[in-house]
């Protein structure tokens, strides 16, 4: 699976479809840090959203760069659809880790913050970025060409889901009480962003870690649903 994941990444970078989400994410970061000093957790909250957006965009371009014929060839070579899907996940996880390292270390190395970053803040920000990136990538799984052949519709629907996820806190606040449970169906992007933003003020670090854990559980649930749907789809073909 590692060899296949490596092959997928090489194939993806040769197509150059990664350039637009990569460039947009980096430009957003550079604009954020175009002046200093910057507050620590406020900045990390913003860059975690950048990573969420970038991972969703990059995830869709990554998943769409493989043709159906090439996918079937990979499945045959590796032995099962489950192994192929896990290889996909591993390949998607690599750029998320790289972006996380960049977003966490860049402002520290370039002295962009108003004060030194505490160790507990560093760990919280790092895991927050990883989970936000994985959430974005996990959402993109359901809007690839293999599941939604209409590319324009898939892009529009992914964009709607991303926007609703970011504004979920404001949206659910206007829902009537009987519908308040709907907030649990939405990706926990808004709550995690708000938790990182208000760490140590209105939200305790323990609560933020709970949000990180919930975001990870939500991501795993999305991946399991995607794998189930994909395996069923492969069995019918």
From TrEMBL:
The chain crosses the membrane at residues 16-35, 41-63, 84-110, 122-143, 155-175, 208-229. It comes from the Bacteria. Keywords: Membrane, Transmembrane, Transmembrane helix. The keyword Transmembrane helix applies. The keyword Nucleus does not apply. This is ABC transporter permease. It comes from Paenibacillus chibensis.
